[in-house]
Specification:
By secondary structure, this protein is of the alpha+beta class. The protein contains six helices and five strands; from the N terminus they run H-H-H-H-E-H-E-E-H-E-E. Helix 2 packs across helix 4. The longest helix is centred in the first third of the chain and has 30 residues.
Amino acid sequence: AMRNRNSDQDMLLLRQHMEMQQDNMNALEQNYRAQRKTAHEFEHHLQVIQELLNRGEMAATQEYVARLRKNRSIMVYSVNSGHPVIDVILNQKYQTARENEIKMHIQVNDLSALTIPTDSLVVVLTNLLDNAIEACRRIDGHREIIGCVLYNNGLYISIRNTSMPVQIVDGKIPTSKADSLSHGFGLMSVTYVLDNLDAEYTFGYDEGWFNFAA
């Protein structure tokens, strides 16, 4: 009975967590539209800089560039996979990693043909990257995230991050209420979604790195 009760609690937590992730999709899509607007504005800035250079106004050009570098609203994002939601997630997490002095390298290819439900992609990618960022934030040494999101007759996701040692028991990472941001809780949501998609996945910890692949 106790095991059933714990299982019901886990399912409730997962359901609530997934609903929160799904609610974020509208915000993600709005962010993507904002990024498209920013890219359009940045094109105008480049035209001004080009005109200043054509006139030989080096001092004015340097002043203009310095002002732009201080303006976070015109920051350029580099991920362009052809899948709007994935692009927004990766760009957002890249910015968060950068703000936390974490090196982040994510390889993508053309993901425009993906048919996996968007809400499932949000849950998987946001949890994996949030976990990786949180793990990096907890270490004083080398902070790095290396990953890929590739589509070729199927979707392959790999996220590796530097981390303190991670305990894995019976294929799970123990969690506690006092540590709700640990790998374990987010990973429960990830594996729940992947199981429903009949996906194959593996994860583990080895010599300072936590690895997840699906």
